[in-house]
Specification:
heterotrimer, A alpha/beta (about 375), B alpha+beta (about 325), C alpha+beta (about 70), A: about 375 residues, Rossmann fold, five-stranded parallel β-sheet, globular, B: 60s Ribosomal Protein L30, Chain: A, 2 domains, 8 helices
Chain lengths: ~375, ~325, ~70
């Protein structure tokens, strides 16, 4: 039995059949949300929406860290990039995101030193290479990424010239805020596989216990996603919502305690601002007091307010209230070439993924 | 010559320039057209056929990579532009812009690479030039080339010949070069190699098979998806690619997954795409596969009508669903997201 | 932001390891997964191993998907 089985077409057909079987027994429209950019991509890349029954709607929540990073964070990054002696290090995803002062890509063309890295570990070599300069890392990402950043912070002391602009966010508080929002109406959640590899199953208990909806921790192949949808629909038919781990091959029920320990030694929870959703209590991470010297935000003196572009409905899209094409800016004023809001910038944002992958089915406006 | 690094004076036109040309370039690239070192190469009369002429610039980083180097790449790339026009390559010009401080041994690798490319394709590098820019004004070395080839009478390749129903073929696995470069930049080691190679021998075999070949393209910068966009644009038709037919080496697949890249958008430097009349597609594949360079050739898609508002390039996924393959909006950067 | 890939650990040197996928190797950190051993398959995200891939578990899932529960007929 190999991992290639996860590409198997017979299983896919079988799962789609089951999805239709259960959906026929639900006499209403059902909305299932995923909250992970990689799930967004899996669904769009394999065209899974085209396989869904009429009454099952798949929406993308705030699972793309690029998309939910507030403009103020980017504005600070640009300010830092423009400071003499500063080199910005970032994941590739952030380079094209527009802030109110242009993107990092544009700052690079203007002469700013911006380096794309693949791993926070690359910072250590970069810091040594650039002695005499300050290297500022744009630390975004959820619980999958934060432990690696934390491990790097612990090692960065000996290099000495690395600072961190911290924009990490936590998923469970965001899910809780979404489910608590009056206007949001979700019937099931596909839970992020790799965030769960870190935090385990327990933090999601409230999804079924308090809000009475099914949650399935799922892997990222199209088969994993289809299996998760089938599971959710089956639970809805039997009226017994629970949180289930379908990614047991990677996610242990207790998650990765060591990773959480490393994360907690450097970071502590704080309130976080999610672009489009606003402030969510306890949903962000900041450096603990002993590490505050490494906080790059202290170098930035101007206070910047996040101003959303007029007409941008990213917030509603992120809550699953709107499908991307229903945003008035979608496709005309907001495209991957000229994105207005964060959902369009990343190919894993709801609008970016939809635009790139779904136009055939929906017909481009 | 025992200098270790290139100095500004090497581009100055004086003694050091002459030493570089006579001591390094000429011995490696020598041929009767280059030998006189005159202001222009004087060439014999052209063989029968139409002239094909191309120019290219190469700024690859790193300049030495698994499977090749700037020299080999720049000459092959130029030869291949001629080949996909249906032209047998004849003569190349090869100019280098070197950054002050470039190590001589790196330049040696580049020159050796150009020599190898010229020799194995039986073409001459008949003209060249060298300039040196101050340190910081040029990234180690750039190459600028042009190439001349001849298209035999009866060979007519052009985009507008493509019609609905035509098959789209690829001569081998895709994405090797672009992915190898990205992998090196990310510190990966192991089984990855640029596919840089001259394609004329394979093109020639295909053209001589008497089949209805509409047009050929080499999927360099931007990869297979980008080339398909070009043809779609010129013809107003749609290119449909079958995901499960795309030949991708497992190491390329692995690196792409690791770095978040899509092989459909990564450069190939030793491949071509062919648009072939439907009834000749199978024969064309057989011809390709019978050649050592075309063993992994495959029919990867077909041309269809484009309805109003339809996408120029479409991928049929392994699940049978369809999605558009858009033009790249930015550079393919390694992602974690 | 969960782009992570399964890789096989081929060599360990303290908290660093050489991991392999499809013939390609990369240095990764085991800082977050110190219990990993040579021969293990791990999930790697941004240069860090974050979890072990339990292949036996994978087989179990495949069984489940292949039809332990009856395939519906209507």
């Amino acid at each position: 039995m190999t991992m290639d089985g996860f590409q198997d077409q017979t299983i896919a057909r079988d799962l789609v059949q089951r999805i239709h079987f259960w959906a026929r027994r639900i006499p209403r429209k059902v909305t299932i949300m995923e909250v992970c950019g990689t799930h967004t991509n899996s669904i769009s890349g394999a065209g899974l929406r085209g396989l869904m029954p009429e009454n099952v709607r798949l929406v993308s929540g705030p699972g793309c860290p690029v998309c939910v990073t507030p403009t103020s964070f980017l504005d600070m990054a640009i300010s830092l990039a423009r400071m003499p002696g500063v080199t910005i290090a970032t994941f590739g995803d952030l380079v094209r995101v527009p802030s109110s002062k242009g993107s990092l890509e544009e700052a690079m063309a203007d002469g700013c030193d911006v380096r794309v890295i693949y791993s926070p570990r690359d910072l250590l070599a970069l810091g040594k290479e650039l002695r005499g300069r300050r290297v500022v890392f744009l630390a975004i990402g959820f619980e999958t990424t934060a432990p690696g950043v934390a491990a790097t912070i612990l090692e960065s002391e000996k290099v000495g010239n690395i600072l961190f602009l911290v924009g990490h966010k936590l998923i469970p508080p965001a899910i809780e805020a979404l489910l608590s929002a009056e206007e949001v109406n979700l019937d099931g959640l596909i839970l992020p596989g790799h965030v769960s590899a870190i935090i385990g199953q327990e933090p999601y208990g409230f999804v079924s216990e308090r809000f009475g909806i099914p949650g399935v921790i799922a892997g990222f192949t199209p088969l994993d996603v289809l299996a998760a949808i089938a599971e959710i629909l089956q639970q809805l038919v039997f009226g017994s919502p629970k949180v289930v781990n379908n990614y047991g091959r990677v996610v242990r029920p207790e998650g990765n305690p060591r990773a959480r320990e490393v994360m907690a030694s450097v970071f502590e929870p704080c309130d976080g601002v999610w672009r489009g959703l606003g402030e969510i209590r306890g949903s962000g991470l900041r450096l603990r007091t002993p590490w505050r010297d490494l906080d790059a935000s202290r170098l930035v003196t101007e206070v910047v307010e996040t101003v959303e572009p007029k007409g941008c409905r990213c917030g509603d899209v992120l809550k699953g209230l709107l499908d991307p094409p229903e945003c008035p800016l979608f496709g005309l004023h907001c495209t991957p070439e000229g994105p207005r809001g964060p959902c369009m910038v990343s190919s894993e944002g709801a609008c970016g993924a939809w635009y790139r992958n779904e136009r055939i089915r929906g017909g481009l406006k | 010559m025992n200098l270790k690094r290139i100095l500004l004076a090497h581009g100055g036109g004086g003694r050091l320039t002459r030493d570089l040309i006579k001591g390094k370039f000429l011995p490696a690239l020598h041929n009767r057209y280059l030998e006189p070192l005159s202001d222009s190469a004087v060439l014999p009369e052209l063989p029968r056929g139409r002239l094909a002429f191309t120019t290219d610039a190469f700024v690859v980083d790193p300049i030495v990579f698994p499977g090749g180097d700037l020299g080999y790449l720049s000459v092959c790339g130029t030869l291949n532009d001629l080949a996909v026009a249906g032209a047998r390559p004849l003569w190349i010009s090869w100019a280098l812009i070197l950054e002050e401080g470039l190590e001589e041994e790196v330049l040696d690798i580049v020159v050796k690479g150009a020599r190898k490319a010229a020799l194995e394709s039986n073409v001459d590098i008949v003209a060249g030039d060298t300039k040196v820019v101050p340190k910081g004004k040029g990234d180690k070395a750039f190459a600028v080339t042009s190439g001349v080839g001849v298209i035999a009478p009866g060979v007519e390749l052009f985009d507008q010949a493509v019609v609905e129903g035509d098959a789209i073929l690829v001569s081998g696995p895709i994405g090797d070069h672009g992915v190898a470069i990205m992998a090196v930049r990310q510190g990966l080691t192991g089984d990855m190699r640029s596919d840089v190679a001259p394609v004329w021998p394979l093109v020639n075999v295909l053209l001589e098979a008497g089949l209805e070949i509409r047009v050929l393209h080499d999927p360099t910068r931007g990869g297979v998806a980008t080339v398909c966009h070009e043809v779609a644009e010129k013809t107003g038709l749609s290119m449909i690619l079958e995901e499960k037919e795309l030949p991708v080496r497992s190491s390329v697949r692995a690196i792409s997954d690791l770095l978040g890249l899509d092989p459909l958008y990564m450069a190939c430097e030793g491949r071509f795409l062919a648009w072939v009349a439907k009834e000749h597609a199978q024969k064309a594949i057989d011809v390709l596969r019978s050649h050592p360079m075309g063993r992994d050739g495959a029919i990867i898609g077909w041309v269809s009508r484009r309805p109003p508002g339809g996408s120029p390039v479409i991928l049929r996924t392994r699940f049978g669903t369809e999605r558009p393959l858009d033009l790249l909006t930015g550079l393919e950067l390694p992602r974690i997201c | 932001m969960c782009l992570a890939v399964p890789m096989r650990v081929v060599d360990i040197n303290g908290s660093l390891a050489l991991a392999e996928l499809g013939g390609v190797r990369r240095e990764i950190s085991l800082e977050l997964l110190p219990e990993a051993r040579v021969g293990d398959h791990v999930i790697v995200h941004a240069g860090f191993a974050i979890s072990r891939l339990e292949r036996e578990e994978a087989s179990a899932i495949m069984e489940l998907l292949r039809g332990e529960s009856p395939a519906p007929v209507s």
